[in-house]
């Protein structure tokens, strides 16, 4: 009886192991298909966005009665779709306004963010690092509409207008500074990750050669993490280009091709907000023009993202 019971117990244990292996295989297969489905969902969402933009943009250029051509759209210097008997659709003023605001934001956020990242990575104590990162996380969590009102009620009247009376209520400088504050956590966080990813052995080797703290930081750590820093810059600028609420509130609504930061401008995203607020009839040429602008914006951000990927691939340093 004892031998029979032992053999039965062994058979039950073997069945349990077989069932356990089968269950694990089923679970792993289910997890594999679940992750694959989520990946395909992301791809399909991107493809759907592109299809919608291409379709609606094609309707803008080829709809009946439209006199807009690709050449006039991408080279025209007047954008007045809702004014006058003959609207004009030259996208350069919107692109120029977007580039101007983004440039101001980049000039403000990129150096400050990089220097902050260097301080957090190389100089700050753990307690100071924790405090500053908490503050940066607060900045990252503030809604963009708050930044827009901040530009209107504080940056322009208290910082810019005392410097010059050329700054009106709406201007590119105030909007650019607010966008720069918004992207500052992105620059700082990603740049710090790139710097902290540099192996300690490189620092130790530089110190062994008699280098100072500043020499190690400026000549070893920052160059070694340069690919990650450049990627952080491009990601932040891409985020700045696509910002909507800040520029819609603080930059103004006048589409003009200018390099003067004291004047008001209209960006591509701000124009889309204006159209979808009901200023144009649905399915009209003015309405469809927003899709052409969106397609232009998508192309610009795609090129910047692709450039960032090439930079990472070309200059990425791998350490063992």
Structure, described:
The chain is an all-alpha fold and 320 residues long. It folds into two domains: 2-62; 74-315, MetI-like (MetI-like fold), CATH 1.10.3720.10. The protein contains twelve helices and two strands; from the N terminus they run ααββαααααααααα. It has helices spanning 2-62, 70-75, 92-123, 126-141, 144-160, 172-196, 200-208, 213-224, 226-241, 245-250, 268-279, 285-315; strands at 79-80, 88-89. The chain has a two-stranded antiparallel ribbon with strand order 1-2. α5 packs across α6 (172-196) and α6 (172-196) runs antiparallel to α9. The longest helix has 61 residues, at 2-62. It is globular. The mean pLDDT is 86.
CATH-derived topology of the largest domain: MetI-like fold
CATH superfamily of the largest domain, by name, is: MetI-like
CATH structural class of the largest domain: Mainly Alpha
Most strands sheet = 2 strands, antiparallel
Question: What is the structure about, briefly put?
Answer:
The chain is mainly alpha-helical and 320 residues long. It is built from twelve helices and two strands, in the order ααββαααααααααα. The chain has two domains: 2-62; 74-315, MetI-like (MetI-like fold, Orthogonal Bundle), CATH 1.10.3720.
């Amino acid at each position: 009886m004892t031998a029979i019971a032992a053999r039965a117990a062994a058979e039950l244990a073997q069945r349990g192991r077989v069932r356990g292996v089968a269950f694990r295989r089923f679970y792993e297969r289910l997890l594999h298909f679940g992750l694959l489905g989520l990946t395909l969902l992301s791809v399909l969402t991107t493809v759907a966005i592109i299809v919608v933009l291409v379709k609606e943009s094609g309707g803008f250029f080829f709809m009946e009665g439209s006199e807009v051509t690709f050449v006039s759209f991408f080279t025209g210097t007047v954008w007045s779709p809702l004014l006058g008997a003959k609207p004009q659709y030259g996208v350069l003023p919107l692109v120029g306004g977007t580039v101007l605001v983004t440039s101001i934001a980049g000039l403000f956020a990129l150096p400050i963010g990089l220097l902050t990242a260097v301080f957090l990575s190389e100089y700050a104590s753990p307690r100071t690092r924790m405090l500053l990162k908490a503050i940066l996380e607060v900045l990252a969590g503030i809604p963009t509409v708050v930044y827009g009102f901040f530009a209107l009620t504080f940056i322009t009247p208290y910082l810019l207008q005392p410097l010059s009376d050329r700054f009106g209520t709406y201007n590119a400088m105030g909007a650019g500074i607010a966008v720069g504050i918004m992207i500052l956590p992105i620059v700082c966080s990603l740049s710090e990750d790139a710097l902290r990813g540099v192996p300690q052995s490189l620092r130790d080797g530089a110190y062994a050669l008699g280098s100072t703290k500043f020499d190690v930081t400026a000549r070893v750590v920052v160059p070694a993490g340069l690919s990650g820093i450049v990627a952080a810059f491009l990601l932040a600028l891409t985020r700045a280009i696509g910002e909507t609420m800040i520029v819609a509130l603080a930059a103004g609504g006048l589409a003009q091709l200018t390099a003067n930061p004291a004047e008001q401008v209209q960006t591509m995203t701000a124009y889309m907000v204006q159209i979808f607020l009901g200023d144009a009839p649905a399915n009209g040429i003015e309405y469809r023009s927003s899709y052409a602008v969106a397609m232009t914006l998508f192309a610009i951000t795609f090129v910047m993202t692709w450039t960032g990927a090439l930079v990472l691939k070309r200059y990425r340093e791998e350490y063992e």
